[in-house]
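Lecture 7 notes: from sequence to structure.
We start with the chain below.
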Amino acid sequence: MSRLCKAGVVLAIATSLLGPVAAQDYPMKAVKIIVPFGAGGPADNYARILAQHLQEALKQPFVVESKPGAGSFIGTSEVAKAEPDGYTLLMMSNTHTVNETFRPNRPYQLMRDFVPVAPVNYSDLIMVVHPSVPAKDLKEFLALVKAKKGELNYASSGLGTPYHMAGELFKAMSGTDIVHVPHKASGDARTAVLGGHVQMMIDAISTTAPTVQGGQLRALGTSGKTRSDLLPDVPTIAEAGVPGYEANIWLGLMAPAGTPKTIVDKLNAEVNKVLSRPETKAAWAKQGVVPIIMSPSAFDTYLRADIDKWAKLIQTTGIKPQ
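Predicted structure tokens for the same chain:
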């Protein structure tokens, strides 16, 4: 009996040490970062930038897999079902905090099935129209939309995405009726506006600024509290005609629930090292993007607050999935 007790104590000690040992040796093989959005959008772009830095720091491949579809459910569900060992991560956005209220019939629950690892960055959005739209600024666009009630369209990368919610918030605050045209990915939505098939989109400024600078699209306003340094001549939507309007897109990393805290902490520390580098801040500033540095617990609080914020907006405006 005494031998059995001793064996049990040894096993318990060994088990308690697995977490620290796992973190010390982690990663020992390739790590997947699944992006549940289309290729070419902000989530995909910054996941690849982050993966490159993590690969250099942790000496193992970090592979980005784009798995869009079903309003981010396909890729997100895959991560929720993955082994909680730190080798499958999710690049998420405020699409996920919106969907906690907006899409109640999800195959997962964000704060139950995932653990926060680290936020990555945020950026303002920008309202753009195809040059064929006969409106040179936001006030002219508002007059046009009100004169052609229900005749103009706006594109998004899908239901519940930041682009969709920014569009619905604009409609609610401006008292306009613009038809939502959801697409499978942000690249598809962007292509539709560039081709003139859809008149308007509220898109990530980091992705869309080059098309504005190149004259392919016309900017009507940016979505932050202040003008973007990237396009300082473009007024904010709030100052151009919809007082109080504000929206953005932010990105973050999560892992399946049950992932050892030691691994989560190690990933958080490495991500924060990347975000803290002066060269990272400088390069991202040129794209209109700001790094967000938080601990896992602070990111948890941030996520819960964002879920509550969108829940109140959705309940107040009555926005529903189409």
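Points to note: The chain has 13 helices and ten strands. Residues 2-25 form the longest helix (24 residues).
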